Amino acid sequence: MLDKRMTIDDVVAQLADGMTVGIGGWATRRKPMALVRAILRSGLKDLTVVSYGGPDIGLLAAEKRIRKLVFSFVSLDHYPLDPHFRAARQAGLEVLELDEGMFHLGLRAAAMRVPFLPTRIGAGTDIIRQPVFRTVRSPYEDGEELIAVPALKLDAALLHVHRSDQRGNVLTLSPDPLFDELMARAADKVYVSAEKVVPTAELDMRANARFNLCERSLITGVAEAPFGAHPTSADPDYQLDLKHLKAYVDSASSAEAWAAYRASFVELPPEHYLEAVGGLDRIAALPKPVY
Fold this sequence. Notes:
3-stranded antiparallel sheet; 12 strands
């Protein structure tokens, strides 16, 4: 397929109830938030969501779209625990909680198309008391008993990138690629939102090959979404919006506060979102936060 361009809503239309969906990024860094908001505007439900979580998880949890969450943390960085996630967890949300290293190995196993990877991570902790875990014994002379981390196979991955062309060649220009490459390789289908969709020549792949997330053959669809990671960051294009993040946190204070936030920032068409959060110039001028 030579032209993989879609709209944000086109991408969500490719998803189905009950799917296992990986959401890329890390906490408040390069989350595909435009796609997450589009899910909230759809009727999609009963998802198994796999994520190094941030406000993506909180938003989906607030609207009860998650049947099961596979995670290693759900943090807003400056606000250590997402309040919408906390409420859902306290209400009994089904979870598989993993150490960050286990999460990495689960994605890597799926990317390698193997059922599990062995590790010492988690040995002696309550994490491995969860029923999904098994142990395996080394077939070599050491005979060590190891934890078997199951593959985190995804039906679809949702990622946010800085640049793409129409064919699915993508660039992530941030200082850390995070684990989006593994998400892409662990999924049957991969949909990306991109800050800009540009002609292939503008990607300058010879100079920028190190920023190429994965082969274009893995990318199923591309949706242009300027500032599509907001309120999370997409450094170097723009930084984390702490003021908006505070408004998001406050939206968990009551049902009325959540309804007001949803009406102001989720239910409106994507082209009106940027105006609602203060406009392009404001987002582009956000200062780099101190961690």
